[in-house]
Amino acid sequence: MKWHRLAAVMVKESRDVLRDPITVAVALLMPLIMLFLFGYAISLDVDDVAFGALDLDQTPRSRALVDRFARSGYFSLVGEYRSDREVEGALQDNSAKLILVIPPGFTRTMARGEAAPVQVLVDGTYSATANLILGYAKAIVAGFAPPVAPGGVSLEPRVWYNPSLSSVTFVVPGLFGVILMAFPPLLTALAISREKETGSIQQIFASPLTAAEFLAGKLIPYGIIAFAQIVMVMAVGFAWFGVPLRGSLALLVAVGLVYVFCTVGIGLLVSMVTRSQLVAMLLALIVTMMPSFLFSGFLFPIFTMPYFLQLYTRVFPARYFVDLSRGIVLKGAALPDLWPTILLLLAYTVAIFALAVWRFRKKVA
Amino acid sequence: MRRRLIGLLAKEMIQFLRDRLMLVLILWLYTVEVVICALALSFEVEDMPIAIVDLDRSAASRALVERFIVGESFALVGRPDSVAQAASWLQAGRARIALVIPDGLQHDLARGEPATVQLLLDGTNSNIAAQARSNALGIVAGFNASQNGAGVTAAGRAVPVTRVWYNSNQSYTPFVVLSMIGLAALMVGMIHPAASIVREKEHGTIEQLRVTPISTWELLVAKTMPTVLIGLVSVFPSLLIVWWFGVPLRGSLFVFLLLTGLFLVSAVALGVLVSAFSATLQQALLVSFFILFPMMFLSGTLAPVESMPDVLQALSLASPLRHYMDILLGMFLKGTSIDVLWPQAGALIVIGVGLFCIAAIVFRRTGV
Q1: Residue numbers in B near A127 (CB within 8 A)
Q2: Could you tell me if B95 and B89 are in contact, meaning their C-beta atoms sit under 8 angstroms apart?
Q3: What SS3 state is found at B85?
Q4: What is the pLDDT at residue A244?
Q5: Which of A185, A272, A302, B273 is deepest in the core (most CB within 10 A)?
């Protein structure tokens, strides 16, 4: 590998990137936009759920139950209905997510010392939140008249690592993995498939550049952009969103660096198997962005997936990095806990590069 | 005019179908990706790895443990000897939750005194932790009821009878399947026309089209029609998958296809607009990505629109995907008919026509 040739490719590639303001803007703005989107807009927390009541009992006791819902902090009353038809209409047009139906004779049944059923109707279209809404509603109804039975077991739940159960704290460290998987591979894949599409790659083949020089020269500028993205995203995550950093920053950055190499390598591989930029982008979407989003444990827990799909999630490196990032940031985990995952990530990265260089060599030869 | 249009359309159609890898990728998005997501993604807490520390080792504690293990919510990964060991399991991610039963549980219960068991939760995933907590509370409540005999605890209490509408088995599957269809249509619908127009710009062939009598409108229609057609055809395998997952189309097929067509037109219009502003393919693809990304996640495909801040809720009204999601969820889950969905259909028309007009104006200005 000759350094001056490597430097020449790097300089050419950097100029190419910097000359195109749109590329620079997308590379630098997009991660921040994603961070703010997920920090503020997409929340799976449940509060102020619109609920309506169909109170067929109309007694002080039944009104107290409705009131209890309204004051719980989880629900806000949007309407009191008179008939089943109105209830159905409210669920249909989305004005209420939960309806509390108190049957006639509610107070009398309770006074007789019997169990008085109360109906809770939940809109299950978004089952992510429907489960939570249901849980809160059950707790409110069950706690309405505390059981008089003596003794009994009480549960004392303690939440570790994220005691306030805030979704920002859980989303941001995971987002590091998603952002680094979404952009660096896409930029790399486009950079190389562009040369293929315009045919300028033939000139590269004809030049004395070796495969390693060409690839390294292409990748280093994108690696630097990706690293700038990590630093930016982490700075905003910790400083602006107040996510606590419990582990070592150096370890997080080091692991991040390995991961960036890995993602850039995937972009390289994508560009090796495609011929046009459009197809390269579609393929990049399918092998990098969607899995990092859906199958990395970023939002959807992996343990609920069927076993063979749990194996499928292991195919994508985002899963390892999300684990590492959450471990370091939220749990304060260090090397003794993390080395198996780090080793896997390293092995993955090496394999990706070996594969890409091998495919490229075959083309050149 | 009609001959010109047909000729141009035929050329575009051939170009589209020639790229085999792309067709495979599109088909993948509409079928395999949908199936994988439907099988894998769920917010329900099932089989959460639990570690149980039983320091009491009595009949009562075993009965409580039994209740935790038997249900679907938790899966036992082991019984650590001490709380410290359970803590290290949580740290390493081997368990997500730990139940600690202190010594003396049976003793306290026998004397009718309150007893406390501890639940340690890994809160890194807040949503999961909150659900696990309420599941555990339910299990303990059931345990108490069985210990006291049903008659005593139920006395004079309000009992919740819950019913979930539209999605009675509380599954995330129908929702995932439907939103994947919307996402696939948006991605392909937007990226493809943008790329095919900008490619002509980049190769300079657009100059040749300009000297022919083809008008801007004809060009735009010819460039976008194949995408809309392929989009409509690809919906059918997805419909089969949806049906296979037990989410039948409750409205009419014709109305569904019509509304899907409208959605595709507005997605395609977005792509045309992007192409009007970009000079190179790389720019066009990156800008599409830039627009696609927030749109994909602000349109109720992942989290409900209602839980977003007001400004973003208002902004999401401009997103065709948001209206299409309402239509999909309405037609498949709620059985809503067109007389309820007409505002969404109207919004799609307004967005699609508006974007097309802006794009056409920009095209004329910049000289095709």
Answers
A1: 43-44, 167, 170-172, 175
A2: yes
A3: helix
A4: 84
A5: A185
Distance, in Å, from the CA atom of A156 to the CA atom of A85, rounded to the nearest integer, reads: 42
Of all residues in chain B, the one with the smallest CA distance to A161 is B123
Residue B263: pLDDT over 90:
yes
Rounded average pLDDT over B251-270: 90
pTM above 0.90, yes or no: no
- Cα distances (angstroms) measured from residue B352 to each of B37, B190, B226, B364: 29, 12, 17, 18
Q: Say whether pLDDT at B52 is over 60.
A: yes
- Inspect the interface and report whether the beta carbons of B41 and A153 lie closer than 8 Å: no
Residue B161's pLDDT band (boundaries 50, 70, 90)?
Answer: low
So what's the pLDDT on residue B324? Answer: 92
Closest residue of A to B203, CA-based? A198
Average pLDDT of B260-281?
A: 89
Q: Does A119 sit within 8 Å of B161, measured CB to CB?
A: yes
Instruction: Check residue A300 and give its pLDDT.
Output: 80
Residue B151 binned pLDDT confidence (cut-offs 50, 70, 90) = very low
d(CA B64, CA B62): 5
Angle at A102 between CA A98 and CA A108, to 5 degrees: 160
Instruction: Calculate what percentage of chain B has a pLDDT beyond 70.
Output: 90
Token pair recorded at residue B50: 């639990």
In contact, B61 and B105? CB cutoff 8 Å: yes
Partner A contacted by B108 (CB < 8 A): yes
Q: Which two tokens stand for residue A266?
A: 């995937």
Cα radius of gyration rounded to whole Å, chain A: 28
- Over residues A47-55, the mean pLDDT reads 85
Whether B205 and B15 have beta carbons less than 8 Å apart is answered as: no
Beta strands in chain B (DSSP E): 48-54, 74-78, 97-101, 115-122, 158-165
Q: Please determine, for residue B87, whether its predicted confidence score (pLDDT) is greater than 60.
A: yes
In chain A, the domains with their CATH numbers are 27-42+165-364 (no CATH), 49-142 (3.40.1710.10)
CB pairs under 8 A between A and B: 356
* Domain(s) of CATH 3.40.1710.10: residues in chain B: 48-153
pLDDT band (50, 70, 90) for residue B163: low
- Whether B126 sits inside 8 A of A124 (CB atoms) is no
User: What is the per-residue pLDDT for B153?
Assistant: 43
Q: Give dist(CA A334, CA B207) in Å, integer.
A: 61
User: Among all residues of chain B, which has the CA nearest to that of A113?
Assistant: B156
Task: Tell me the average pLDDT across A163-180.
Answer: 80
Q: In what order do the strands lie in the sheet with A116-123?
A: A75-81, A49-55, A98-102, A116-123, B158-165
- Please check whether residue B295 is in contact with residue B263, taking contact to mean a CB–CB distance below 8 angstroms: no
Question: How high is the pLDDT of residue B19?
Answer: 78
Interchain contact B121–A (C-beta under 8 A):
yes
Measured in whole angstroms, how far is the alpha carbon of residue A342 from the centre of its chain? 20
What kind and span of H or E run contains A325?
Answer: helix A318-330
From CA B116, how far away is CA B106, in angstroms rounded? Answer: 11
ipTM of predicted assembly, 2 dp = 0.75
The residues near A258 (Cβ < 8 Å, ≥ 6 apart) are: A342, A345, A346, A349
Residue for token pair 């704290």: A169
Measured in angstroms, the CA of B167 and the nearest CA of chain A are apart by 5
**Collapsing DSSP states into helix, strand and coil, what is residue A199?**
coil
pLDDT digits 0-9 by tens, B216-228: 788 888 888 888 9
Angle at A234 between CA A231 and CA A239, to 5 degrees: 120
Q: CATH number of the domain at B48-153, please?
A: 3.40.1710.10
DSSP single-letter state for residue A101: E
